[in-house]
Amino acid sequence: MSVEATQLVDDVMRRWPATIRVFLKYRMRCVGCPIGCFHTIDDACREHATDRAQFLADLRDAVGGKPISAAGPTR
């Protein structure tokens, strides 16, 4: 599963912690924001006037196709 515009911001950052750097790079202060559990990636891009396609591409690059499991990272 990759990052999609319909996913909630908070869910994305929890599942793929490496995406936090991307939010900060775009000056999106979504980390710890109480709205993050309600806003989708699409909502956040619209609210922050950010190019959605480029933002999603950067999120997907950060993810590298490797989600963190519910039990945490494995070695």
From TrEMBL:
<dbReference type="Pfam" id="PF08984">
    <property type="entry name" value="DUF1858"/>
</dbReference>
<feature type="domain" description="DUF1858">
    <location>
        <begin position="7"/>
        <end position="53"/>
    </location>
</feature>
<dbReference type="InterPro" id="IPR023883">
    <property type="entry name" value="CHP03980_redox-disulphide"/>
</dbReference>
<protein>
    <submittedName>
        <fullName>DUF1858 domain-containing protein</fullName>
    </submittedName>
</protein>
<dbReference type="InterPro" id="IPR015077">
    <property type="entry name" value="DUF1858"/>
</dbReference>
<dbReference type="InterPro" id="IPR038062">
    <property type="entry name" value="ScdA-like_N_sf"/>
</dbReference>
